[in-house]
Automatic annotation (TrEMBL):
Any GO molecular function: prenyltransferase activity
Top-level taxon of origin: Archaea
PANTHER family: GERANYLGERANYL PYROPHOSPHATE SYNTHASE, SHORT CHAIN ISOPRENYL DIPHOSPHATE SYNTHASE
Keyword Zinc-finger: no
UniProt keyword tRNA processing present: no
Keywords recorded for this protein, A-Z: Magnesium, Metal-binding, Transferase
Family to which this protein belongs: Belongs to the FPP/GGPP synthase family.
GO biological process assignments: isoprenoid biosynthetic process
Protein name: Polyprenyl synthetase
Cofactor field: Mg(2+)
Natural source organism: Korarchaeum cryptofilum (strain OPF8)
Stored Pfam families: polyprenyl_synt
Length: 277
């Protein structure tokens, strides 16, 4: 139950977690300022919503808190950042977050290299955790994202009609895997091994609804994988699908006790299908 809140109110509720994510990112980048492109990177990172690290922090707290979620939260957002920079090169996309994409502003060479550098910071972060499962989860997400993007490129090159199953598979790999890892990590770092599976599924379903919404927001742009979906009323179908995944994500929250953090996680699932950006 509960009353659905507006986008503005959710932003306010998320604000402390966005700040925490920014602090963690600054800490991770602090030792890496010898990179001549550190400033453009910081500039580029300013525009992100920080939804993935926020989810990691929220689930960590909702699972009792503790551990050191900051480094993992920074790692998740850094992987996301590297993937966006590469994705914009692959899609030849001119803008990102309302400003010119990294490769448009700084050239493709620098865009490739800064993403390489970002992933090396992620390795540095992983080396700081004693628990090997953290590195395993982060590497799993990064691998799946790469595979998902490859699957998408293959399907787009082929240009043949695709099934809903093909489409969902791409989404699961390229987007939902990082949401899943962020969510699993929140529970794992809190020491709740018993919850990390179910919390991971919250992230997986949320990631699916989030990406379907993304595809609906991009509707009509050329080169989109949704063009390949066969059948009529694709748009209505996707709207319904996103709603179903959003509800499946909310269901997974039944595994954790009520808390202010749980309420925010519920609102994030509701927001995933209503967001405008
Ligand atoms: C790990 C370097 C690396 C590459 C993996 C390129 C690639 C292979 C994967 C790209 C996957 C991709 C672009 C998924 C889209 C995910 C998505 C919904 C992006 C938008 O996320 P928001 O709304 O964006 O969180 P902001 O700007 O708020 O951060």
């Amino acid at each position: 139950g509960g009353i659905k809140i507006g986008e503005e109110e959710l932003k306010l509720l998320l604000d402390p977690y966005v700040r925490k994510a920014d602090l963690a990112l600054m800490e991770a980048l602090r030792n890496n300022m010898e990179n001549p492109f550190a400033d453009p990177l910081i500039e580029f990172m300013k525009g992100g919503k920080r939804i993935r690290p926020a989810i990691l922090f929220l689930i960590n707290e909702a699972c009792g808190g503790g551990g050191s979620p900051e480094l993992a939260a920074a790692a998740v957002e850094l992987i996301h950042t590297a993937s966006l920079i590469h994705d914009d090169i692959i899609d030849d996309s001119d803008s990102r977050r309302g400003i010119p994409s990294f490769h448009i502003k700084h050239g493709t060479e620098m865009a490739i290299l800064i993403a390489d550098f970002i992933l090396s910071i992620v390795l540095e972060i992983v080396s700081k955790y004693e628990d090997k499962r953290i590195g395993r989860l982060l590497s799993e997400a990064t691998k799946l994202m790469s595979i998902g993007e490859m699957m998408e490129v293959i399907l787009l090159r082929r240009g043949d009609p695709i099934s809903v199953e093909d489409y969902l598979n791409v989404l699961k790999y390229k987007t939902a895997s990082l949401f899943q890892t962020a969510s699993s990590l929140g529970a794992l770092i809190a020491g709740r091994d018993d919850l990390y599976e179910e919390m991971g599924l919250y992230g997986l379903y949320l990631g699916l609804s989030y990406q379907i919404r993304d595809d609906l927001l991009d509707w009509g742009e050329k080169g989109e994988i949704t063009y390949l979906l066969k059948g009529n009323d694709v748009r209505e179908f996707l709207e319904d699908l996103a709603l179903q995944y959003s509800m499946k994500a909310m269901d997974k929250l039944n595994f954790i006790p009520d808390s202010p953090q749980k309420r925010i996680l519920r609102e994030i699932a509701a927001y995933s299908i209503e967001r405008k950006i």
